[in-house]
Amino acid sequence: MRATTLTPHLARRTAAALAGSAALATIAVVAPANALPLQAGSPSWVRSCTTLAKGDTMSCHALRVTDTTTALTPSGYGAADLRSAYSLPANGGAGVTVAIVDAYDDPNAEGDLAVYRAQYGLPACTTANGCFKKVDENGGTKYPRADRGWAGEIALDLDMVSAIAPNAKIVLVEASRATTADLGTAVNTAVRLGAKVVSNSYGGSESSNDPTYDKQYFNHPGVAITVSSGDSGYGAQYPAASRYVTSVGGTTLKKAGNTRGWSESVWNGAGSGCSAYDAKPSWQKDTGCAKRTIADVSAVADPATGVSVYLTYGGNGWVVYGGTSVAAPVIAGVYADAGAPSAGSYPAAFPYAHTGSLNDVTSGSNGSCSTSYLCTGTTGYDGPTGLGSPRGTTAFTG
């Protein structure tokens, strides 16, 4: 991965952030008990949302790398790397509002976003210039309590949308709690506030109520809603299983000497599987699942090929993140680059009409399953990576 040197101005800002956060506890440099086994040579990481608060049913999908020294210099993939990997423009997103939906509050969200965008030469996105807005789940300013784990997720999501769609406007909608009802209310608020793309990087167990939740919270024609597929390998989660969303799986992304300049394989942690409750959307034609199959498309998620994020609430500056929490806002940014979806459309269907405009991911596995393609990369559609990763914006255009 390419490291980038901070300008003196940013170095001073970062040093101040380090000093101001010196009292924060250091995260252990071992993966938690519920983490996937680490492959040889891969980094240690922790789940950003390691435990659920009382009553919470959803967990964020951000994985924070712990054996990369936090410093004044980013060490993960940056904005230009990601746009290069997915053949995206440097000035995308103009005229589109992207909403980030997460639980709890990151009190440093706007300031940290400013550092990330300045580091990578992206235009400023602030409350003052009308580009950035933070609201609670009902659209007001009664923000929920702050949470260091979810703050990492928020910073990751904001940075990834900025990297991919630097000219999009961003609305951060913070749910009061990590429940389907609160996060779903936040999705509805995001759409009411004008978002044409909504990114969601969280999930939980499926339930028989999910088809009802679909109608209440995720059925928004004309809006692209992306959801991360999960970080625990083969197995379905909700809301990735919703028939109305674009479910985003995960890859291992590496620089290569091929024509593309990059290679991808299935990340072994990417979620996939068959929904027990959600009906299969009409555009999904695979035969291994009678109901909804996860995922639809994919992007980088492996912590070993992670991305740079700037974080000062729950972090000390530059950190590296992985997980399908990376992939969901990346795909949200690609939808924004493609332009606002047409009224009445279901953007989850778009990639299925443009399969030739995606990078097919044909190797790797995320576990064991009775129907091979549901957990193994193969030519054409597969569970962990769906139809593949972006190659430009065509596959995300109606």
UniProtKB/TrEMBL annotation:
InterPro entries named in the record: Peptidase_S8/S53_dom, Peptidase_S8/S53_dom_sf, Peptidase_S8_Ser-AS, Sedolisin_dom, Tripeptidyl-peptidase_I
Alphabetical list of Pfam families matching this protein: Peptidase_S8
GO biological process, one term: proteolysis
Ranges for domain Peptidase S53: 73-398
Keyword vocabulary terms for this entry: Hydrolase, Protease, Serine protease, Signal
Molecular functions per Gene Ontology: serine-type endopeptidase activity; tripeptidyl-peptidase activity
UniProt signal peptide: 1-35
Identification of the protein by name: Peptidase S8
Biological source species: Streptomyces kaniharaensis
